[in-house]
Amino acid sequence: MSTTISDIAKKANVSLATVSRVLNNSGYVKEDTKRKVLSVIKEMNYTPSAISRSLSKSETNIIGVIVPDITNSYFGEIIKGISEICEKNNLDIILFNTNDCLDKELKSLRVAKEQRLKGVVMTPAFGEADFTTKYIKTIENLNIPIVLVSADIKFIKLNGVFVDNIKAGFDATTLLIRDGHSKIGIITGHLGSEPAVDRLIGYKKALEANNIKITEKYIFNGDFKLNKAFEITNSIFKMDEPPTALVVCSNMMVTGVVKSLFEQNKKIPEDLGVIGFGKTDFLELIGVNIPYMDEGPVELGKSAMNILLETIKEKNKSSIPVKRITIAPKVVFKQYPEK
Fold first, then answer.
1. What digits encode the pLDDT tens for the residues 6-21?
2. Are both 177 and 264 inside the same structural domain?
């Protein structure tokens, strides 16, 4: 069992507050008492956690980062950007993975409040069509600066850094049209999420702008995950008139598409043109090089963290304007440089 500051206080015969003052090097403590506490800390091999060090403070020096899927490299890149800014400002990070679940997200927010975190950067969970009254109240009563990244929350105007996903969907579809495709399908993300809806809107706008009829059977409802995209791609070549190209709305779903095509002995782009969203790291290993929409996730993370720092500095002001930035994605024609 790990040593706590209560154990230190008991052995040193001092109060918890005294131990906390010694750990934080704050407040007055007699030199002999300080030496005694430090001696006990060394004897008991106690290493305080970042949160324990902050018990006597009104808030910690820790930023909460809440993401829906830690296994997705897209969110790993966002976290990387956040971490770079935190390191420059001597801030620590505590990471919460919600697995696309609003209940887990609510729990993460409650923990952030209970642990007196300095602020929160969050990508709201995908896969939930509506935000409940309970959820909205939790956000409103958080009393901690919060900045959204990549996805918005309905009914509340919060600080955030977002992507112009309508433009992303439009540009991705337009690229396939320029490559000569007219039978273009799309594997959407979960349509309970704003990014997925906006990418679908952009896809439809691109078809309309090029006088191509929107074919409902070419719109495949995905969920941002590998397995669903794999199943959809398996079914595509069983269609009477399959699409000749696909807009695939997440890097994880690109993985599912590629896996299915490999198992069916189909090639990209000969048998199916594909454009993805976000870099898919493993493609270089198997020699597949497809274009993708780059949202700049590292920069998204940096921008969100910078807004959070500004918000923290201004939080005692009576009126703080909401800061919201929208970033335009760009087309990257190759996942990796070919040798």
1. 788 888 898 777 887 7
2. yes
Residue 127 confidence class, pLDDT cut points 50, 70, 90: very low
Q: Of 296 and 135, which is predicted with more confidence? A: 296
Clarify whether residues 92 and 149 are in a common domain: yes
Alpha helices (H) along the chain:
5-12, 16-24, 31-43, 73-88, 102-114, 133-140, 165-178, 194-209, 226-236, 251-263, 283-286, 297-314
Angstrom distances, CA of residue 299 to CA of 32, 91, 121, 156, 161: 50, 18, 14, 24, 10
Residue type, 237: F
| Count of Cβ atoms closer than 10 Å to residue 318 Cβ | 4
CATH number of 285's domain: 3.40.50.2300
- Radius of gyration over alpha carbons of the chain, in Å? 25
Q: How many domains does the chain have?
A: 3
Q: Kindly report whether the peptide bond that precedes residue 269 is cis, defined as omega within 30 degrees of 0.
A: yes
State residue 129's pLDDT score: 44
**DSSP 8-state secondary structure symbol assigned to residue 96:** E
CATH of the domain at 49: 1.10.260.40
Domain with 44, as residue range(s), is 5-57
Tell me the DSSP string of 234-295.
HHHTTSSS--SEEEE-SHHHHHHHHHHHHHTT--TTTT-EEEEES--TTHHHHT----EEE-
**Domain stop point among 35, 57, 79:** 57
Q: Please name the residues in contact with 329: beta carbons below 8 A apart, sequence gap of 6 or more.
A: 163, 164, 165, 167, 168, 171, 293, 294, 295, 296
Residue 324 in any domain: the answer is yes
| Cα(332)–Cα(338) distance, integer angstroms | 13
Residue type, 256: G
11-25, 221-235, 295-309: lowest mean pLDDT where? 11-25
pTM above 0.85, yes or no: no
Distance CA 19, CA 56 (A): 10
* CA 278/CA 245 separation, integer angstroms: 17
- Asked if residue 97 is part of any domain, the answer here is yes
Residue 249 CA to residue 138 CA, distance in Å, equals 30
Instruction: Decide if 154 is inside a domain.
Output: yes
Looking at the domain assignment, is residue 338 inside a domain?
A: no
